[in-house]
């Protein structure tokens, strides 16, 4: 094993890992906000709203993420109206296309997780809150969401880990994140396997941080 | 615009269709590899000797913690070397090259197997211990217990989870396009390059994937219903 060559590759790999972390954090934050809207949309008594959010969830969960990324990155650029719109500076960049695709994808999965968490709350609690004269926003802030968030923690932890891995697909649209960086070095050097092993170790470290974080949060929010 | 998808020499219809068939072929092969690896690793985790248990734990932890794409690249760059090394152990002198299909099926199968392990392990543990003890008390041999008592019941518990693993495996086959295997994504990419109509080709691919995932979901639901026959519930559904 050539230690020197591996050491010289480390800065590129770390730079790639930094891009991966950015993609994960940004798309998880944006995705969670959108997922709240999706969950409320799915639970809405308005047929049109629940129908539209239901279709959105179906579309994004029944197709592979890579297709979604390519459709946004390559597909949208086909239309002149989009190339001439104010959105083009954003949609031209692989970085933002990856974040948009990852956000839309995780929002569909997280929305369903959240919906399950909200639906798991016993109706008696909502009746009790109403009987105390709580307004709807207050009821959601104090009763529904805190409990729903606690229920979904394990499932959402899995979704976060899936997202770390999903960011690797951004390398298919020229973005040099961790997998892309490892691949670039691998095709140039005589030690391709070592590069992927180091990249794998970095991914495992990220997964480990998330599992520990979720475990800590579960302990923190456990009742009784 | 839609004539681009016509069958025959001037359209891309037949290329897309052959890509979809290749996608299904890779998915089914990888899924079978995954079920095989998953059963082995689950057996190791449940009742193997310590070294095998550790090996199985290492396998599921590592593979479920890294992206499938990384596994594909690792096998693409390192797989031939590994197979060549194994071949020299058996006295073969030349270099063994792996095809894109072999790399794809192996990589997606390894990932599929890591997830299948946990599903199968959970399902086997859900079978009441008393049943196995009763079978042993009746003098059944290990294989007979496996065939008549354990597998039929564990399969019922495993089906929903195995359905999820199948959906994941089917979607993971898209990643094999990076090593130029002519599956659906790759054919859509080639079509896009020669016609400059990316939206058309990727929407077509998306619809085909949607058909595949929806049909297989229905299939797994039917299988579940069949496995559940004769099981009485408090609430019928």
TrEMBL record, chain A:
ABC transmembrane type-1 domain ranges (all copies): 13-214
Transmembrane segments: 12-40, 52-73, 193-214
Gene Ontology biological process terms in this record: amino acid transport
Record keywords, A-Z: Amino-acid transport, Cell inner membrane, Cell membrane, Membrane, Transmembrane, Transmembrane helix, Transport
Record flagged with keyword Transmembrane: yes
InterPro entries: AA_ABC_transptr_permease_3TM, ArtM/GltK/GlnP/TcyL/YhdX-like, MetI-like, MetI-like_sf
Topology in the lipid bilayer: Multi-pass membrane protein
Coiled coil: none
GO MF term list: transmembrane transporter activity
GO CC list: ATP-binding cassette (ABC) transporter complex
Main location: membrane
CDD domains registered for this protein in UniProt: TM_PBP2 (cd06261)
Gene3D superfamilies in UniProt: MetI-like
Localization, UniProt: Cell inner membrane; Cell membrane
Family statement: Belongs to the binding-protein-dependent transport system permease family. HisMQ subfamily.
UniProt subunit comment: The complex is composed of two ATP-binding proteins (GltL), two transmembrane proteins (GltJ and GltK) and a solute-binding protein (GltI).
Function: Part of the ABC transporter complex GltIJKL involved in glutamate and aspartate uptake. Probably responsible for the translocation of the substrate across the membrane.
Protein name as catalogued: Glutamate/aspartate import permease protein GltK
The species this protein was found in: Niveispirillum lacus
UniProtKB/TrEMBL annotation, chain B:
UniProt domain ABC transmembrane type-1: residue ranges: 20-220
InterPro entries membership: AA_ABC_transptr_permease_3TM, ABC_transp_permease_HisMQ, MetI-like, MetI-like_sf
One GO cellular component term noted in the UniProt record for this chain: ATP-binding cassette (ABC) transporter complex
CDD domains hit by this protein: TM_PBP2
PANTHER family given in the database record: ARGININE ABC TRANSPORTER PERMEASE PROTEIN ARTQ, CATIONIC AMINO ACID TRANSPORTER, MEMBRANE COMPONENT
Its membrane topology: Multi-pass membrane protein
Native species: Niveispirillum lacus
Keywords, sorted A to Z: Cell inner membrane, Cell membrane, Membrane, Transmembrane, Transmembrane helix, Transport
Signal peptide: none
Highest taxon of the lineage: Bacteria
Transmembrane segments: 20-44, 98-116, 199-223
Name of protein: ABC transporter permease
């Amino acid at each position: 094993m050539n230690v020197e060559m591996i050491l010289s590759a480390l800065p590129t790999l770390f730079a790639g890992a930094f891009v991966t972390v950015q993609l994960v954090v940004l798309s998880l934050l944006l995705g969670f906000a959108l997922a709240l809207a999706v969950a409320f949309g799915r639970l809405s008594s308005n047929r049109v709203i629940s129908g539209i959010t239901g279709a959105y969830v179906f579309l994004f969960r029944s197709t592979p993420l890579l297709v979604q990324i390519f459709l946004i990155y390559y597909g949208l650029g086909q239309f002149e109206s989009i190339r001439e719109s104010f959105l083009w500076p954003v949609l031209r960049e692989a970085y933002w296309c990856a974040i948009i695709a990852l956000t839309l994808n995780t929002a569909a999965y997280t929305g369903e997780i959240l919906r399950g968490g909200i639906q798991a709350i016993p109706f008696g609690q909502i009746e009790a809150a109403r009987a105390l004269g709580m307004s709807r926003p207050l009821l959601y802030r104090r009763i529904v969401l805190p409990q729903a968030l606690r229920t979904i923690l394990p499932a959402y932890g899995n979704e976060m880990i899936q997202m770390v891995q999903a960011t690797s697909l951004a390398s298919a649209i020229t973005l040099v994140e961790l997998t892309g960086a490892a691949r670039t070095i691998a095709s140039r050097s005589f030690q391709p396997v070592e590069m992927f092993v180091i990249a794998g170790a970095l991914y495992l470290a990220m997964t480990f941080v998330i599992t520990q974080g979720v475990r800590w949060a579960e302990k923190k929010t456990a009742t009784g | 615009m839609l004539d681009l998808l016509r069958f025959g020499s001037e359209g891309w219809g037949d290329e897309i269709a052959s890509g979809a068939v290749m996608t299904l072929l890779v998915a089914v092969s990888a899924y079978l590899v995954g079920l095989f690896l998953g059963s082995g690793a689950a057996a190791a985790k449940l009742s193997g000797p310590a070294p095998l248990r550790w090996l199985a734990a290492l396998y599921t932890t590592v593979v479920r913690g890294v992206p499938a794409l990384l596994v594909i690249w690792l096998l693409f760059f390192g797989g031939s070397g590994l197979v060549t090394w194994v071949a020299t152990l058996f006295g073969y002198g030349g270099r063994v090259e792996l095809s894109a299909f072999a790399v794809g099926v192996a990589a997606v199968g390894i990932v599929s197997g890591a997830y299948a392990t946990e599903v199968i392990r959970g399902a086997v543990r859900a079978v009441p211990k008393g049943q196995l003890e009763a079978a042993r008390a009746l003098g059944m041999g290990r294989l007979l217990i496996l065939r008549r008592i354990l597998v039929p019941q564990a399969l019922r518990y495993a089906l929903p989870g195995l359905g999820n693993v199948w959906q994941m495996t089917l979607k993971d086959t898209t990643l094999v396009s990076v090593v130029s295997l002519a599956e659906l994504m790759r054919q859509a990419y080639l079509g896009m390059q020669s016609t400059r109509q990316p939206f058309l080709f990727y929407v077509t691919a998306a619809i085909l994937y949607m058909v595949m995932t929806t049909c297989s979901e229905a299939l797994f639901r039917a299988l579940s219903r069949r496995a559940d026959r004769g099981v009485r519930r408090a609430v019928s559904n």
